[in-house]
Design brief:
By secondary structure, chain A is an alpha/beta fold. Chain A is built from 9 helices and 17 strands. Classes of the chains: A alpha/beta, B alpha/beta.
């Protein structure tokens, strides 16, 4: 079977869940080889990759992967693709993943399809475009197909294998050492899942009326183990960080459950959430367009409904 | 500080957007078009850097004839001149081809900094800054929510991340892309709109830009759309009015759907 590359996404000494999703996808397309690039110590992550069926691991450790933005990884990935000629390269559709894939595609004379949510054995990718309003089937027709896949679009399934680890020597060029990462600053973490990877997202909008009321959204999110999102009205007002914005100029999410609280459902907000599996809306205006999308809509004041909802969930959990 | 800003004309997101049935490319003809919103922030950032450090701002766009409207907007905001790459043969270009074309055009200009929007609302690829950096052999400083320039020496940005930001710096010249929280774009003033009319605009064809016709456009795109369809509208949702037990009703729905 043909080799299919999976670029491992990892952070803070942990493999990101999306990597297991990619390995699961890759098994349906061929023989998965994980490409593991990182600073010294990254080798420790290799074990976990076998659990999801990696047959081979290409490992390169170089401080430059951490110290410089994107380019060193793109260079190493392109080098490996040229040497091994895989049938396809799967990369997470994260900001960094897309940038690495795009640069490596150009370096290897290949094409790229981003944000796939499905791939056929013939490597035809399904994408949701125009904010999810249109579904497209697209294919790379030049070089090695680079396909970036949306987190949360595949259920990761374990399939234990004992991968062979191949140490790869890479020579990161000076040209790739242009953009130096001087510091990584964590502003807010709070132990909640990442928006793009979360299976439940609770979002708040202008209806909350102020930054202080986002505590209510966070509380609901925490009872559900959810990530917190926000509409642009809320992030523009400075009530919640821009990183959490859902929509056309924010994140696109596709969780099992999306709860929109005090959000009207403008087309640009829908663009980031309308492919969610189940949508629940809480809004006091029965005419709010968000109700057109909702599997369950509650017309009412969020300040009455949400506290009661939190209590009801807690009660069921107990 | 000479700055190149890449702006793109896109279908208005308030409008119904479709692919054309004949060749499965974005239908740019039958919709209202606007400057890609984030590109206004890119123009604004370029103008602020120019105002602080001097120099010229050059707008670059690749797109159909009517993309001049978008160029005019950037010029009326205060950019100094513009280059418009436009040619029928470019129709249907993929991102790999577009990056090649833009890099060739930018290669003929003088610049210390290239600024882009973080992503376009039609393609949403969010990779153009990375690709231009790759093609021009320049440092990539993408997804900036803040840009600080020390003319002649370096540029540093706050790159937005999931939980905060990365502080990233490089020598000049460099490629920067900006996210929408970076600034508040100005509205063109009446004076600006009038002045824009006489600012230099260079129009380039494929051949002018030195792009090989044998590699351009839909026929040579590195990826192809095989099929497309409108997503069926969601329906069958249940809408309930709060009668004092709204929260409980939502919890019942979630439990019934096995979501809690
Ligand atoms: C180019 C462009 C890009 C954009 N990108 C994005 C984007 O990425 N993400 C995004 O979200 N928006 C985006 N927007 C903005 C979008 O058009 C809307 O303005 C925005 O989504 C509105 O946010 P909202 O729903 O929170 O606010 P509103 O539209 O003001 O809605 C607030 C809602 O809260 C309800 N409400 C008020 N009080 C209560 C209460 N006590 N209880 C219950 N309900 C209550 C109201 O009935 C109303 O429906 C973009 C716009 C443009 C032009
Ligand atoms: N045809 C184009 N002409 C000029 N700039 C472009 C073009 N396409 C993309 N860009 C720039 O690249 C950014 C990201 O676009 P994209 O990668 O398509 O999401 C945009 O915000 C523009 O600044």
């Amino acid at each position: 079977m043909a080799e299919v590359f999976v670029l491992v996404e990892h952070a803070d000494g942990d493999i990101k869940k999306v990597t297991y999703e990619l390995l699961t996808r890759a098994r349906a397309l061929g023989e998965p080889s994980a490409v593991l690039l990182g600073g010294p110590g990254t080798a420790a992550l290799a074990d976990k990759l076998g659990e999801y069926g990696a047959q081979r691991i290409y490992l390169a450790e170089d401080a430059a992967f951490d110290e410089f933005l994107v380019a060193p990884k793109a260079e190493a990935l392109a080098q490996l693709v040229s040497e091994k000629s895989p049938a396809a390269v799967l990369v997470a559709s994260s900001p960094e993943g897309k940038e690495i894939a795009a640069r490596a595609a150009v370096r290897t004379g290949s094409g790229i399809v981003t944000d796939a949510v499905d791939i056929t054995p013939e490597l035809v990718a399904t994408q949701n475009i125009f904010g999810g309003a249109t579904v497209v089937q697209a294919k790379v027709v030049t070089g090695t197909p680079f396909i970036t896949i949306r987190p949360n679009s595949t259920a990761p399934e374990a399939a234990p294998a004992t991968p062979e680890v191949e140490q790869v020597s890479v020579n990161v060029s000076d040209a790739a050492k242009g953009a130096r990462v001087v510091d990584r600053v964590v502003e807010a973490k709070g132990g909640r899942p990442d928006l793009a990877e979360a299976s439940v997202v609770v979002s708040g909008g202008r209806g909350l009326g102020g930054a202080e009321h986002f505590a209510l959204i966070e509380q609901l999110a925490d009872t559900l183990g959810a990530a917190v999102g926000a509409s642009r009205a809320a992030t523009d007002a400075g009530w919640y960080p821009h990183q959490n914005q859902v929509g056309q100029t924010g994140k696109t999410v596709s969780p099992q459950l999306y709860i929109a609280v005090g959000i009207s459902g403008a087309i640009q907000h829908r663009a980031g959430m309308q492919t969610s599996k189940t949508i629940v809306a809480i809004n006091k205006d029965p005419e709010a367009p968000i109700f057109e999308l909702a599997d369950f809509g509650l017309v009412g004041d969020l300040f009455d409904v949400v506290p009661q909802l939190i209590e009801a969930i807690e009660k069921r959990k107990a | 500080m000479n700055i190149v800003v890449c702006v793109k004309q896109v279908p208005d997101t308030w409008a119904e957007r479709t692919l054309s049935a004949s060749d499965k490319t974005l239908d740019r003809a039958s919709v209202d078009v606007v400057m890609n919103e984030i590109d206004e922030y890119a123009v604004e950032e370029a103008l602020r850097i120019k105002e602080a450090h001097g120099g010229e701002v050059t707008v670059v766009t690749m797109g159909p004839t009517r993309a001049t409207e978008t160029i005019r907007k950037a010029l009326s905001m205060g950019a100094d001149k513009a280059v418009h790459l436009t040619d029928e043969a470019l129709h249907g270009s993929c991102v790999v081809q577009t990056s090649d074309a833009l890099a060739k055009v930018i290669g003929t200009l003088e610049y210390d900094l290239i600024i882009l929007g973080s992503e376009s609302t039609d393609a949403r690829l969010s990779v153009m800054a990375a690709l231009l950096a790759e093609r021009l052999g320049l440092p990539q400083l993408s997804l900036a929510r803040k840009v600080t320039v020390e003319p002649g020496t370096k540029v540093s940005i706050e790159r937005q991340t999931e939980h905060g930001y990365d502080l990233v710096e490089s020598a000049l010249p460099a490629v920067v892309s900006v996210v929408e929280k970076i600034n508040e774009p100005r509205y063109p003033s009446f004076k600006g709109i009038m002045a824009a009319k006489s600012k230099p605009l260079t129009t380039l064809s494929l051949a002018d830009a030195g792009i090989d016709a044998g590699s351009a456009g839909l026929a040579h795109a590195t990826s192809q759309v095989e099929d497309f369809a409108a997503r069926p509208p969601r329906s069958g949702g249940e809408i309930v009015k709060n009668e004092g037990d709204g929260g409980v009703k939502v919890a019942e729905f979630l439990a019934g759907s096995k979501l809690i």
